[in-house]
Amino acid sequence: MSRIVIIGAGHAGGAAAALLRQYGHAGPILLAGAETAPPYQRPPLSKAWLKGEADLEDLLLRPESFYVEKDIALRTGVMATAIDRDAKTVTFADGTVEPYDVLILALGSTARRLALPGADRPDLLELRTLEDAERLKAALGPGRRLAVVGGGYVGLEAAASARALGAEAVVIERMDRVLARVASATLSDHFTARHRAEGVEILTGVEVTGFEDAGVRLADGRRIETDVVLVGVGALANAALAAEAGLVCADGVVVDEAARTSDPSIYALGDMTRRPVPVHDSVFRLESVPNALEQAKQAAAAITGRPAPAPEVPWFWSDQYDLKLQIAGLPFAADRQIVRGDPSAPGFAVFHMAGDRIVCVEAVNASAEFMAGKLFIARRTPIDVVRLAETAQPMKSVAQD
User: How far apart are CA 329 and CA 372, in angstroms?
Assistant: First the structure.
């Protein structure tokens, strides 16, 4: 029976190990991760964890006893340093060498660093791991001020959590709007208005030029006084180990629809991969839990000889205050947008259209629009855009007759 080694004990790696057992793999499985905690959920780090509404047991994907019961060897706090594809071994920082028949890489991504004066200060925070979240949580509270550099989802979620804890928050974004790289202007405007209503200061079109004691320096000479600085300006795929082993990489490890790399004995999952997305007829590097789980299913099915799972529509979510944002699909091929509902109200949706087909839906407190939009994207259903824009028309009626 083949021996499977999984490097990376996050959501993707943990899911792959569990699915391999579920799908009938009876051979040895080693799941090794650099963090000391067992596989856990990362999305709550910027929300429930910061606000003290969750502890480690709440975040764990499965209790530690699961790995014992399923005969999965779980090694935490160990970092892989080299892959020898000829010998089929992985070397770890503690000197141990593990053989494999099949290797799964699930190393995730790492925070993008800014090449600015003071960017190497140890008091600058990021939010990628449980340890990061605990440092940020300890720094927040009444009378404290958080500066978030980068107006993406994680930064906005952290700002919302800071306000819930009684801290002040300022978001600094170099683009002309928050979420500029990942969402429509309609969505950006809605979240900007809500954050400002909650007391968050939003600065857009401003450039950070350096970090100082208790402050952030801007290009226009202003100094933003702050107690805590969180830098959230995107992430890079952790593909160095794969590249050093000679695997094909291009903004992530290149994989096929089975999550298989250029080496047929090695698979790669999650944030670190650049993968085909059949529903969009293209390849992308995606950073989301649903993406990690889909690729874990693909790899586990391929390894155990099961039929490949049906391709899924990429989807994402973000919770800020009482707003639940759900996004399905990717908007890159869109030629126009249809807004359904009032963008100044708590519930509305933005549909990105390519001709008469939906390629992406952004839904705020609008689960019916999200679910229907996701289904229409998967089926490539032609849509009547007049009916789509009318909230009086139920979503099931917007498909063309």
Answer: 12
Backbone angles phi, psi at 80, to 5 degrees: -75, 140
Contact partners, residue 276, CB within 8 Å, separation at least 6: 256, 257, 282, 283
pLDDT digits (tens, 9 = 90+) for 316-371: 999 999 999 999 999 989 999 999 999 998 899 999 999 999 999 999 999 999 99
Q: SS3 letters for 356-376?
A: CEEEEEEEECCHHHHHHHHHH
DSSP for 92-153, please give it. ETTS-EEE-SEEEE---EEEPPP-STTTT-TTEE--SSHHHHHHHHHH-STT-EEEEES-SH
The model's pTM is 0.96
CB-CB contact of 248 with 261 (8 Å): yes
54 burial (CB, 10 Å; 0-12 / 13-18 / 19+) is: middle
Q: CA 242 to CA 261: how far, in whole Å?
A: 9
Residue 69 φ/ψ, nearest 5 degrees: -60, -35
Instruction: Count CA atoms within 13 Å of residue 311 on its CB side.
Output: 18
Region of 217 (left: φ > 0; alpha: ψ -120 to 50; beta: rest) is beta
Tens digits of per-residue pLDDT, 195-254?
999 999 999 999 999 999 989 999 999 999 999 999 999 999 999 999 999 999 999 999
